[in-house]
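Input record (one chain):
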Amino acid sequence: MNEFEQNPQTKRNDVIDSGVGFIVSFVFFSLIFVIATVIELVAG
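The corresponding structure, as predicted from the sequence alone:
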């Protein structure tokens, strides 16, 4: 094992971080989709 495996900076579970990242990116792209749909409806 190298020194990084022996002394990690955080002991948190990676699944939590992955889930948060997925949710944030999903919300971001959903927001872009909603904005584009509203602009398309307004523009006609």
